[in-house]
Amino acid sequence: MTNPETLLDDRKETTVTVARTGLPALVARHAAHTPHALAVADGDTTLTYAQLADAARRLATYLHQQGVRPGDFVALLMPRSARTVVAQLALWWAGAACVPLDPAHPRPRTAAMLEDSGATLTVGDSKLLEAAGTPGATLALPGDEQLAYAQTPGDGPGPDDTAFVMFTSGSTGRPKGVAIRHGAIAELVTDPTYVTVTARDRVLLHSPATFDGSTFEVWSALANGAAVVVCTTERPSFEDLAKEVERHGVTVAFFTTALFHQLAARRSRVFSLLRTVVVGGEAMAAQHARAVLRAFPWVELVNGYGPTEATTFATTHRVVDADCDGPVPIGRPMAGATSHILDEAFLPVADGAQGELWIGGSRLARGYTRRPELTAERFVDHPTLGRLYRTGDLVSARPDGVLDFHGRTDDQVKVRGFRIEPGEIEHALREQPEVDDAAVTVRRPTPDDARLAAFVVAAPGPVPRPDALLARLTATLPAHLVPAELTVVDRLPLTTSGKVDRRALADLATAAEAIGAAEPLTPLQQAVADVWSRSLGCEVTRPDADFLDLGGHSLLALVVAEELREDLGVELSLPDFFTTPTVAGHAALVERALLAAHTDLHPDAPKDTDGH
Ligand code: ADP
């Protein structure tokens, strides 16, 4: 975007497409025009637009009676369900901004999020509120049947009011809360040109509420009169996702890049059911995109790029086969976003050259809550280009304006869709008394897997035990920030300029990978070990091999569960999976399931006649 004409075009686009509304008004509009159209469904609850608006208004009235006032920030802690959508709308109709919390986060993390967002109250599910022990005031939300009437609400929030505060990793050891406006989300999803969503569509909601992908999932549907299908399984397996899509006739889904790669690698049948697949979070691998496009040629595949600070997606690209000869591009700015590729002197780079991407336009976040200095550092008033967000991403523009992504200018990494500042984890490690210094890097044992590897230099005294240190980290950091492996080293490798040498660290991580000594396995254990080996990218030879110790994580658990289903015909639920995460434990579960299936079968049952 270097010549003045394009800049002008960008600005024109911004002024034309600004959505001047809050999100509840979008629901109210559809409730008036298509009251009986399906708005939200989960396994138990089905709400039309009229019912959704009514339920949310009644809950808003209750919240108001309980003291929620316009301008308040209220945290929300609920399992994912149709009621989550009702509760969000109700908070907004009561005038508040919503701070989604994750029940899986450790207490100190939740406490920090509450403090930094300025939330004065946490509402939600009574059991979760009790278990989470959230500091400050809490309010359990009553069931719909307990809410009698709705007062006529005001107009609801305007486009400039804050809809959500979403947290992302912060390099100084504290997560950053990004305040996202209603108008920014409305503009992202209303009549989108980069993806097909019509009133006849059904969009899958399966992302955690703390993740900005969930705003696309809910609001691309509700802004356009379509339906949200809520997956209530907290950690759905690949098979759970496919069943959900199948059962509810889902047509549109968003997948993080890491999940997309896994589904693509096994040609998941979700692609035979979906019309539109939006993927985002990390660089899309050409071979996976091509495999999906060739096997499922009807799929509308969209690569979405963007930081939370620019409201979910800033650029998008409709991926076609010809894009898969090289790295898949991230496309052009959309829905009011502008893009500017600048050099270190903040000047536009030469055509085609690499530079840092700065994003402008009407969807930029207000900034980071209660962090004015950080906000000033990343959101900058450019003398000629207006307010811009500095992404830290390296890109280049093709002659037609399509952007290619080339990595980061800093240490920030992505692991399974989570944005991670290694500095945040290093900070948490240095807080431990036995640790003098720490560095964290990403290791890729297989092309589709990424794991956090930590290196610590011990403080004088007894040498810290890696497993004990990691266990302590789980008390303060959410699971995605806890390294999969930790090695104690004498000193951290440094570059000639005295900085931690991250490339050398990555090599060290590969060298430190442990390989277990061989022990005899039973045939069933061997079958399980084979599945583990393929997924984990290392040879698994011991019955007591532990999935987590070998660097296994939630996404790999999905892979293993799916392969066990395919290879051995047994479905392991994820809770079972993690109760006994050893080869022997899994083999025992498989054996039990096989026996149960066997005894369930009537011995004289006639054979399937259709050849299965
Ligand atoms: P999101 O949740 O929308 O992915 P985050 O704020 O978590 O947003 O992460 C944003 C960062 O993720 C970007 O700055 C970029 O480094 C990376 N990223 C996001 N989408 C893509 C993509 N499609 N291709 C390459 N990198 C991406």
From TrEMBL:
<feature type="domain" description="Carrier">
    <location>
        <begin position="519"/>
        <end position="594"/>
    </location>
</feature>
<dbReference type="InterPro" id="IPR020806">
    <property type="entry name" value="PKS_PP-bd"/>
</dbReference>
<dbReference type="InterPro" id="IPR000873">
    <property type="entry name" value="AMP-dep_synth/lig_dom"/>
</dbReference>
<dbReference type="InterPro" id="IPR009081">
    <property type="entry name" value="PP-bd_ACP"/>
</dbReference>
<protein>
    <submittedName>
        <fullName>Non-ribosomal peptide synthetase</fullName>
    </submittedName>
</protein>
<dbReference type="Pfam" id="PF13193">
    <property type="entry name" value="AMP-binding_C"/>
</dbReference>
<dbReference type="InterPro" id="IPR045851">
    <property type="entry name" value="AMP-bd_C_sf"/>
</dbReference>
<dbReference type="InterPro" id="IPR029058">
    <property type="entry name" value="AB_hydrolase_fold"/>
</dbReference>
<dbReference type="Pfam" id="PF00550">
    <property type="entry name" value="PP-binding"/>
</dbReference>
<dbReference type="InterPro" id="IPR020845">
    <property type="entry name" value="AMP-binding_CS"/>
</dbReference>
<dbReference type="Pfam" id="PF00501">
    <property type="entry name" value="AMP-binding"/>
</dbReference>
<keyword id="KW-0596">Phosphopantetheine</keyword>
<keyword id="KW-0597">Phosphoprotein</keyword>
<dbReference type="InterPro" id="IPR010071">
    <property type="entry name" value="AA_adenyl_dom"/>
</dbReference>
<dbReference type="InterPro" id="IPR025110">
    <property type="entry name" value="AMP-bd_C"/>
</dbReference>
<dbReference type="InterPro" id="IPR036736">
    <property type="entry name" value="ACP-like_sf"/>
</dbReference>
